[in-house]
Amino acid sequence: MDIAGAEVLAARIAQQEQWCEALAVRAGRQPRVDPDGYALESIRPGVRIYRAERRLEAYEGRTSMVTRRLRKFLVDGWWDADRVVENVESVTQEPRNSVLTLDRPNV
Question: Structural domain of residue 83, as residue ranges?
Answer without folding.
Answer: 3-103
